[in-house]
Design brief:
It is a single chain. The chain is mostly helical. The chain is 68% helix and 6% strand. Strands 1-2 form a two-stranded antiparallel ribbon. Strand 1 and strand 2 form a beta hairpin. Helix 1 packs antiparallel against helix 2 and helix 3 runs antiparallel to helix 4.
Length: 138
């Protein structure tokens, strides 16, 4: 039960930290502010990039943590062993992917697409691990 609550708490803290980093002007942590037509923004791209990554992974972790409340401890251990290598690997891949956006192509940057792909893989793999490990052995 302790691990379940810890996973849930970490995902909630991640949601809060991600929200704060996504809104640096609102929380007074922007060092390079601008104002345009009544909109206040921040030129600090690093904060919003990191905040977006933390926020999105925390949303997925929050969903998975709710599912983990209903499974056995062995399933949680298996999921945690997956998370221990997946999160650093996906963070490295996202960090080294190109952040350039091409105005001629109506798609987001490669970094954004890699981030969403890693999130989808994380969610599908997490749910698959939970289902696979929690099924009853006949």
């Amino acid at each position: 039960m302790k691990k379940k609550l810890l996973i849930f708490a970490v995902s909630v803290v991640g949601l809060i930290v991600g929200y704060i980093l996504l809104n640096p002007v609102k929380f007074g942590i922007c060092h390079n502010q601008y104002s345009y037509n009544g909109y206040n923004g921040c030129f600090d791209e690093v904060k919003s990039t990191i905040g977006g990554i933390i926020e999105l992974f925390s949303i997925v972790s929050f969903i998975v943590s709710i599912i983990l409340f209903f499974v056995k401890e062995e399933v949680i251990k298996s999921w945690l062993s997956f998370v221990k290598w997946w999160l650093p690997l996906s963070a490295i891949i996202v960090a080294f992917s190109s952040a350039e956006e091409n105005w001629m192509v109506p798609y987001p940057s490669i970094r954004t697409m890699v981030l969403f792909l890693s999130l989808i893989i994380f969610l599908i793999a997490s749910i698959s691990i939970v289902i696979w490990k929690s099924r009853k052995k006949i």
